[in-house]
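Minutes, project check-in
Item: structure for the 210-residue chain
Input as provided by the requester:
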Amino acid sequence: MITRRPLPTVGVMDTEEAATAAETPPAADSSRWFHGCWIAAIALLALFALAAHAVTEFEKSLDGDGQMEQPGRSGSAYQPLGPGATARYEDGLRVTVSRPEAHDDGTYSLTVTYENGTDEDLALDGDSYSPPLDVRAGEASDEDHYAGYDVEWLNYARSTAALSQPLPEDDERTVPLRLKPSRKGIPVTVEVSTPTPGSRDTAHFQLTLG
């Protein structure tokens, strides 16, 4: 007589544990999945950054290198910059007009500083149609350029002579101005029209003498 042993009984708990083990990925696979997602996210962010930079450069190419791009006031005749402010151009040129300093003889001194951050030498002497540097009495938005008072540019020859030579790349030049207003407390506008092969915005600075 042949005696058969009873078959082993598989418990419900053993079956559930086996199924759970089959469904749960190994720790190494989970780590590789997380690492892959992280790399994909970084690549996507880099792609967005490159696209944004390309759009910005394209917009600049449409505007031209002679556009001002400083934060705040635009530097136009209707949004002039104040004393001590800097006009910043897209091609790297920086123009700063200092605060006026009063003297006992009723005159005022200030400076216009050019910083050439472009990739070439820069001519500062302008052309016959637009003076490279101009000073006039009145607010920047005064279209008729007459305000009932006047300002005398005492060292005009010295100032314009400082603009006669090109400004080398990565160099700066300071042009002194000596002004005498017809009376104390008048507004004065300094206009800077640095030439460029294309076109360049004129930077307007409005100051008060006194």
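Outcome recorded: The chain has two domains: 30-63, 86-209.
No further action items on this chain.
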